[in-house]
Structure formats: C-alpha cells, structure tokens
Amino acid sequence: MKKKITVLIPAYNEEQVLPMLQKRLHTLGESLPNYELEFLFVNDGSRDGTMQLIRDWAEHDTRVSYIDFARNFGKEIGMIAGFDHIKSDATVIIDADLQDPPELIPKMIELWEQGYDDVYARRRSRTGETWFKKKTSEWYYRVLQKSTRIPIQRDTGDFRLLSQRCITALTQLRESQRNTKALFSWIGFKKKEILYDRDPRAAGETKWNYAKLINLAIDGITSFTTAPLRLSSLLGGLVSLVAFIYIAYLLIRPLFGVPTGSGYASLMAVILFLGGVQLLSLGVIGEYIGRIFNETKQRPLYLIDEYHESTQHTKK
Length: 316
Ligand code: UDP
Ligand code: MG
Known about the structure:
This protein is an alpha/beta fold.
C-alpha cells in the first residue's frame, strides 16, 4: 500500500492561477511515484470561474477532491474544513497562488519520513513585500513571543506538511475566530524547519489588506494569551500609584507654603490621560468578551454546498 499525501489548497477567486497550479501539481505527482496523492480544494465562495475549473479538473483527474463552501468564510475556516475531510498519512497546506512552491513538497515528505510531524517552510526572503509589511511583522512576532511560553515559529505561513496526528489534533480545536498559525504552534509535536524563498503571487490579486492583517494580528494575540488583560491590570495599578503619589504631593504642598495655582493644564492632562488608559483597558476587555460572545454562539464553522471526494483511494 502506498502512503497517501493530501495537498490542501484553499482557493478564493483564483481562476487566473489555477491552470498554472495544475501544471505544477502534475509535475509534482510525477516526481512522487511512490505516494498516492490527493488534491483537496476548498473553494471559499469564489465569485469567478474557480469552481468550474476545479470541477473540470476533477472530471478527468481522480486525485482531485473539492469542498465547495456556501459562501466566503475566509482561509482560516477553509483550512479547518479541509482538515475535517482528510483521511491521509500526511497533509501539505499550500496557497493556490503559487507563492508556496510545490517543488518543496518532496523535501517535506522526506523529513516527515524521518519522523517529523510538522515540517514548516520558513521564508528566507520576502520578495514583493514592502519594507513596512516586513517590519510590522517582525515587531508583531517579537511581542507575541514575549507574551507566551509556547515557541512561535517566525516568518512562517501556513505552508507546511502535517502528519495525521497533527491534523486530528487541529480538528479538535473548534474555535470560530481562528488563527491557524497560532494553533500550529499550540499543538506542538516534532517540528522541523526548512528554508525557502517565497515567490511573488503568480497571477491575480492578493485578498489581504491591512485591515484584515490587523484583525488577524489581534486574533493571534487574543487566541494565544490573556497577557493583555494582565497588562491592563498592571497599567491600572501603575497609574493609580503615580496618581496616589501626586495626590500626596498636592496635600503636602500647602504645608510648605506653596500656593495652589489654578492648574487648568495639569488638571486636563490628568483627566485625559486617565480617560485614555480607561478606554484602552475597556477595549482590551472588550476584545476578550467579543471572543467569548462569538464562541458561545456555537455556530457551525462552515457550511458546505458540495463535496466531491477523490475516487482514487476507493479503488483497491
Ligand atoms: N483565500 C481563501 N479565502 C479568502 C482569502 C484567501 O481561501 O477569503 C486563499 C487564497 O485563494 C490563497 C490563500 O488563501 O490560496 C492566500 O491568499 P492570498 O494569496 O490572497 O494572501 P497572501 O498570500 O497575500 O497573504
Ligand atoms: Mg498569496
């Protein structure tokens, strides 16, 4: 029996790159004759011809499976839907836009065969990204790592090979506001890094923008750690202490004959500062309450319009 490897591909409006992807995956299949491959697409409510292309492909390629979502749910949810449908020995998650070179997969499989559970690709360079994006991401990782004991992999995306026990572990994490990157770190297991150069997107447009990135960053922090809550308590304590000392100073001052002035500026400064700190702390608490609210709704993570399972492994 050949071992089965699933290539999981979340795709949203990717009609322009799919033909290229098809070619690259075909070549990949030829370079891995000793494995049974499955190409599992999650069509995330694409509004272009993506679904039709996948369907056509599945018609003449028995390796192709697909999940067609009822609407756009986002890549994070696309991945958990994929995990739920995987019955393989190992899974590789890859972007549809060929930013993750499929040629790296044989190397990942090799390391997996040596006993690693999570072979993740770390970007050596980030071609086609702005200086600002690189810097912000660097700071973000640094802050995130300081806030938790769990080792976080830097400069890695979702491009990785996972053993089936990692997949099983991930399917048990059912939170709705997902930051899958944080979950990969959380599950642990034997990890191995390989370096690669991330290519620019082959065609089409990125679906990311700064608003989405900021949301993902906040989700990353709030799903990982409650440190910001602790931080706002500490900040509150610190501000109170300073305020207390200042009050004491104000009370003592007249004893030494210093006249009490009108003090409009200092009064305003204190009021505004305290107001700001309070709002900030409330906002932090609000973030966590928002998460609690979303999780308590207990909605299904996704809804599937159509599921097609590759027919390959059913024939003996
Ligand atoms: N994607 C998705 N749902 C979305 C947005 C993106 O499934 O709502 C997929 C997209 O098709 C691609 C991958 O997620 O395969 C990464 O998206 P993108 O290339 O736009 O992000 P970037 O590489 O710029 O971070
Ligand atoms: Mg991309």
